[in-house]
């Protein structure tokens, strides 16, 4: 949408994509929510990741460095651009593209009312995993059996030249790819 085309939306708010400063999406969203006349949408995902200390929950923006805001372009553009954490409103030269309400609605439906989607990593026999925490931290294994009632898994582990089957808590293994297991 060019500057001239934006004049057509006078009095009406539209959704725009905002670029945030690196890892500041949540800060930009919080400051935008305090601003009158601006509606904000920051879809996020939550998952478990392996760290040196074991497992931990991580929450990240679904679109790193981006969030969405609905505002009147003519009245609020400069105000939105100056919000702490916002780097800029996405534009291409003199074109300021808007996002249809239907697209934001579909994203909201997929993510949920809390703007947060929890990603469970379901374990199944045959999945390749990495052990997180404890003496065996960092070793690779293969799930041989899942025991959801006990929240444990049996893994086949090659250690010191022989294969052994051991039982571990389900939250002490990570699927190859970085996400923790979660039993629902």
How would you characterize the overall build of this protein?
The protein is elongated and about 70 Å long. The protein folds into 2 domains: 3-118, NusG, N-terminal domain (Alpha-Beta Plaits, 2-Layer Sandwich), CATH 3.30.70.940; 128-175, SH3 type barrels (Roll). The protein contains 4 helices and 12 strands; from the N terminus they run αβαββββαβαββββββ. A hairpin with a 4-residue loop joins β9 and β10. The relative contact order is 0.19. The strands form 3 sheets. The chain has a 5-stranded antiparallel beta sheet, with no helix packed on it. The protein has a 4-stranded antiparallel beta sheet with strand order 2-5-1-6, with helices on both faces. The chain is an alpha+beta fold. The model is unreliable at 1-10 and 178-184 (pLDDT under 50).
Write the layout of secondary structure elements.
Elements: H1 3-6, E1 14-20, H2 25-33, E2 39-41, E3 44-51, E4 54-61, E5 66-71, H3 73-81, E6 86-89, H4 101-111, E7 116-118, E8 128-131, E9 140-147, E10 152-159, E11 162-169, E12 173-175
Parallel strand pairs: 3-7
Antiparallel strand pairs: 1-5, 1-6, 2-5, 3-4, 8-9, 8-12, 9-10, 10-11
């Amino acid at each position: 949408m060019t500057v001239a085309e934006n004049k057509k939306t006078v009095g009406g708010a539209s959704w725009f994509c905002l670029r945030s400063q690196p890892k500041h999406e949540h800060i930009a969203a919080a400051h935008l929510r305090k601003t009158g006349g601006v509606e904000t949408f920051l879809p996020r995902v939550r998952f478990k990741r392996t760290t040196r200390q074991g497992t931990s929950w991580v929450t990240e923006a679904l679109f790193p460095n981006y969030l969405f805001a609905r505002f009147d372009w003519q009245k609020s553009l400069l105000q939105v651009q100056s919000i702490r954490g916002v780097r800029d409103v996405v534009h291409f030269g003199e074109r300021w593209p808007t996002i249809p309400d239907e697209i934001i609605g579909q994203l909201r439906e997929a993510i949920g009312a809390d703007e947060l989607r929890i990603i469970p990593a379901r374990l199944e026999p045959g999945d390749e995993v990495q052990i997180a925490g404890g003496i065996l931290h960092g070793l690779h294994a293969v799930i041989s059996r899942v025991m959801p009632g006990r929240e444990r898994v049996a893994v086949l582990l090659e250690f010191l030249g022989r294969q052994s089957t051991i039982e571990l808590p389900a939250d002490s293994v990570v699927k190859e790819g970085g996400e923790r297991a979660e039993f629902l």
